[in-house]
Amino acid sequence: MELKRRPRRLRANEAIRRMVRENHIRVEDLIYPMFVMPGEKKKIEISSMPGVYNFSLDEFILELGNVVKLGIPAVLLFGIPESKDSAGTGAYHEHGIVQEAVRLAKKNFPKLYVITDVCLCEYTDHGHCGLIENEQVLNDPTLNLLAQTAISHARAGADMVAPSDMMDGRVAAIREGLDKEGFSHIPIMAYSAKVASGFYGPFREAAGSTPQFGDRRTYQMDPSNGNEAMLETALDIEEGADLIIVKPAMAYGDIIYRTKERFGVPVVAYNVSGEYAMVKAAAANGWIDEKRIVLEALVSMKRAGADLLITYHALDVANWIREEGQA
Q: Is 18 annotated in some ligand binding site?
């Protein structure tokens, strides 16, 4: 039997495999999430996320030097405040930890693209993403605080804000607030398809943001609902979102694909803390090839339609790409 088509011809060696490869991970695709905290000379490893740290500002700047040296274009900042209260006032204080980190980052590395997470959960003593009354998360009263937070980040020099709270109408409130304050040029990267996932556990350890009662299922999406993700995304785009985050990423490739196909906007896959922790734990036990697994997972997100990748693996990935380029 004569076979006219032999797909294996284009798999014969690494040269041809590279030449016909459909999807690529580039350093330019990477956004590195970082945690900043008060104090000095503090670099505290997060026990469930080996290689990821809470940084005091002086250590944060040293680490940013490594980020810039590797060519990673952007960081996403999360803040750990010195104290918390019921209204999360540290989130929107002029001299809050994220605001100070932004100023320091832009002073030392003005070309680095600085994105800030906009939420209250790290700053509230109850651990929820909004104001509370009778153990209920209040949607509309929270919107003004989220807008204040985004404005304070923009004033500090942030290049982009990323609301992650999942309150209804928060993108519109932030867009209106930014525009009124002269920040119409600041893009919004909205956590639009953010589900109430079990993959967030290590992040909550890092940020100290575990809810003190109940859970986040009244505002984060049910993992079973794909159509709801499309509704949330459509609403956020209508309200002024410029980029859309799908979070988590590995179990939600269908949502990444549908978002890109339907809306055509830049889509960002958030490779979250639990996904990172599982890979690290398996690699530490010698069960998997860490580099191979990480790159395979990230390329699956690109294949699904993601334009950008938020990942705690960013430093390693950038190093691997550099090593391959030098080979």
A: no
Question: Around 263, how many Cα atoms within 13 Å sit in the side-chain half-sphere?
Answer: 28
Q: How far is residue 53's CA from residue 207's CA, in Å, rounded to a whole number?
A: 11
**Backbone torsions φ then ψ of 63, nearest 5 degrees:** -70, -35
Q: How many CA atoms lie within 13 A of 95 on its CB side?
A: 2
**Domain 23-326 is found in CATH 2.30.30.100:** no
Domain boundaries, the chain: 23-326
Task: Indicate the helix (H) or strand (E) that contains 282.
Answer: helix 273-284
Q: Which residues of 245-254 are buried (b: 16+ CB within 10 A; e: fewer)?
A: bbbbbbebbe
Q: Is the pTM of this model over 0.90?
A: yes
DSSP 259-276: HHHHH-S-EEEEE-HHHH
For 222-241, how does the pLDDT look when each residue is reduced to its tens digit (9 = 90+)?
Answer: 999 999 999 999 999 999 99
Q: Provide the annotated active-site residues.
A: 194, 247
| Residue 312 in marked binding region | yes
- 129 labeled binding residue: yes
User: Using one digit for the tens of pLDDT, what is the confidence trace for 135-185?
Assistant: 888 999 999 999 999 999 999 999 999 999 999 999 999 999 999 999 999
Say whether 258 counts as a known binding-site residue.
no
**121 labeled part of a ligand binding site:** yes
Backbone angles phi, psi at 160, to 5 degrees: -155, 150
Closest to 75 (Cα-Cα) out of 49, 101, 107 = 101
DSSP code of 222?
A: P
Is residue 116 within 8 A of residue 98, CB to CB? The reply is yes
> What is the widest separation between alpha-carbon atoms in the chain?
75
